[in-house]
Amino acid sequence: MAQRSRLWIVGACAVLLVASVAWESSAASLSSSSAAADNEKPTKLTVLCTVEERWCAAQTAAFQSKTGITTTYVRLSGGDAVAALDDTNAKPPFSVWWGGSADGYVAAKADGSLEPYKSPNAVNVPRSLKDAGGYWTGIYIGVLGFCSNRAKLAEASVAVPRSWSDLLDPALKDQVSIAHPATSGTAYTELWTQMTLNKLDEQATFEYLRDLDENVSEYTVSGSAPVEAVAKGDATVGVVFAHDCVAAIADGARDLVLSFPREGTGSEIGATALIKRGPDPAAARRWIDWALTAKAQEVGARVRAYQLPINPKAKVSTFSTDLDKLKLVDYDFVKAGKRRAALTELFTTSVAPVPPETEPAG
Questions:
Q1: Coarse DSSP helix, strand, coil percentages of the chain, rounded to the nearest 5 percent
Q2: 308 three-state secondary structure
Q3: Secondary structure of 229-271 in the HEC alphabet?
Q4: Is 53 helix (H, G, I), strand (E, B) or coil?
Q5: For residues 244 and 144, what is the distance between their CA atoms, to the nearest angstrom?
Q6: Domains within the chain, CATH numbers bracketed
Q7: Residue 116 CB: number of other CB atoms within 10 A?
Q8: Are 226 and 184 in contact (CB under 8 A)?
Q9: How far apart are CA 189 and CA 143, in angstroms?
Q10: How many Å from the N-terminal Cα to the C-terminal Cα in the chain?
């Protein structure tokens, strides 16, 4: 994992250089206490963003318009975000983390990368959707599904997959696309879903993952990249978050079909958190307060990000997945986060190596 932790720089170095210059220019004026920093009027913010590029852009633009705070972002996949926070722990170039599954936040908390902040707007967030100590707070929910290409399924004489075991069909050899759990929060959600279905039996889980590996064409860095591969016909089935498949269909990929495993699927709590020792803590707290509002959680749908907002007052897109119609596994985000490093290392050594950084992270 140490070798992988350096690779996040490849996709974000240009933005990080800008962010680092901004950090240096403001370091001298930063107060040694958070309280003093909060008394200053915030003027800038760099967000570590772990959702799709267009949503990162729209969300930061909306915050800047609302507050007047100059806002930039660094976009990374979930696994790379955890690595980036660990790498830059002493002097991070970003001040707030937004998006990505809560188990990554649990891992970052254990690494000492996050600082607690209990926003007054978090009072209505259910306990199960936030950290008790205020280290992270949920903002949206996403669920795993199968995104398939109808034409490719017909070509292989395979039905739309509706079970995890369907992905092991020999007719799908080299036709399943999924990200690598060391780089992608989406893929780690799939790994922990298998752990949950197997009652935390590591041996049974990795037997399944090794069997699935026989049908995987290649592991992507990004959790959403399999959607593009399936849409292009480079793969038949992608294991992705449902909202990414729905967004592609809305974008015109009409040959895609979304389905869910009948035995149960995993979910994510997309979260936000204050980064420890970030250069602009006052602006970061302002971001978290705003991110928990209904208006902020309605931005995503305008750019075809169809995750379910956690704020009960936020409007829910008709394209969002109805959780009441799905069977969800009892996904323990805390246990998943605590075992993330060990399980991703085991996957890397016993199933497949970490892929090279050849695509935008997501």
A1: 45, 20, 35
A2: strand
A3: HHHHCCCCEEEEEHHHHHHHHHCCCCCEEEECCCCCECEEEEE
A4: helix
A5: 10
A6: 2-141+269-318 (3.40.190.10), 142-266 (3.40.190.10)
A7: 14
A8: no
A9: 9
A10: 18
Phi and psi at 267, nearest 5°, equal -140, 165
Q: Is 1 exposed, middle or buried (0-12, 13-18, 19+ CB in 10 A)?
A: middle
d(CA 96, CA 107): 16
At 193, list the tokens. Answer: 């879903």
Cα 190 to Cα 327: distance, rounded to the nearest angstrom? 15
For tokens 């399944």, the residue is 208
Q: What are phi and psi of 109, to 5 degrees?
A: -60, -45
Q: What amino acid is encoded at 215 in this protein?
A: N
Q: At residue 65, what is the residue type?
A: S
In this structure, the strands spanning 176-179 and 237-241 are parallel
What's 200-228 look like in SS3?
Answer: CCHHHHHHHHHHHHCCEEEEECCCCHHHH
Give kind and range of the element (H or E) at residue 239: strand 237-241
Q: Which of 153, 109, 152 is nearest to 130 (CA)?
A: 109
Evaluate whether 111 touches 65 at the Cβ level (below 8 Å).
no
Q: What is the pLDDT of residues 139-187, one digit of tens each?
A: 999 999 999 999 999 999 999 999 999 999 999 999 999 999 999 999 9
Distance, CA of 12 to CA of 76 (rounded, Å): 7
CB count within 10 Å of CB 270 equals: 28
pLDDT per 10-residue tile (average), the chain, 362 residues = 39 41 37 44 96 96 98 94 95 97 95 97 95 98 98 97 98 98 95 98 98 97 95 97 96 96 97 98 98 98 96 96 95 94 97 79 44
C-alpha 221/C-alpha 203 separation (Å) is 25
Least Cα distance to 352 among 236, 181, 153 occurs for 181
CA 18-58-248 angle, to 5 degrees, is 115
Dist CA 83 CA 301 (whole Å) = 29
